[in-house]
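For consistency, the fold was encoded as tokens, which produced the following:
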Amino acid sequence: MNLPIPNLSPGDFAIALFFVFLAGLIDAIAGGGGLISLPAYWAIGLPPHQALATNKFSSVWGTAISTTNYLHANMIDIPVALVSASFALGGSWLGSSAVLHLSSAFLNYLLIILIPLITILTLLKKKFGLINRSGQLTVRYRMVIGALAGIGIGFYDGFFGPGTGTFLILIFALALHYDLVTANGNTKVVNFASNLAAVITFAIAGKIFYPLAIPAAACGIAGNLLGSRLVIRRGNTLIRKIFILALLLLFIRVLWNLAS
């Protein structure tokens, strides 16, 4: 399918590339990068489907880089992450299928309640995500919860989407007692799997605007490189701060959805 070629100025490219870099930086640290990059693509005039496709293309490469960095730093529980990623693929397909028949509007109202509660919980629990206590749980339990988290958040990603990585970090930290660094590393494996599937789908459909997607991918890689290295050096304290920022961005996005 031949899509119309967007008429973008050098300034439009500069704006998009800057925010994609910033999105990659934040996403590598605490998830939620799409809450920055996707609105940037919309703001410069990309049609919705092209914006979604171009955003997925630019983000999947950066996610791959941060995943590799966390893997080399031994910050991923590989068996649990892979199980969760495989179930997330199925969940995403179910969510994408369901949204064709159902309205996702009710999730905006649900998130208006959930996001402030999650933020308050994070602020009150001073030791939230600072210590990795996952070893106290059996491997089977971690596998089962990882699978449930994968299919549940995968469904959310396919059905609605915003803040998927941030919610995954929350689940890995609360339900499986990982510290925030390991929870983030596990999340990157899941995100990479779901993003790769989406990129393949969009590429086959001819929705990706490559003149912007390719340089944006380079900026996303740079942002993820910087973000993942900051996490490796500064650890859980940095993630905690950026995690709260990601929740704030998600809350603003949900309010915007309700107002528009």
Notes: Residues 57 and 200 are 9 Å apart (CA to CA). The chain has ten helices and no strands.
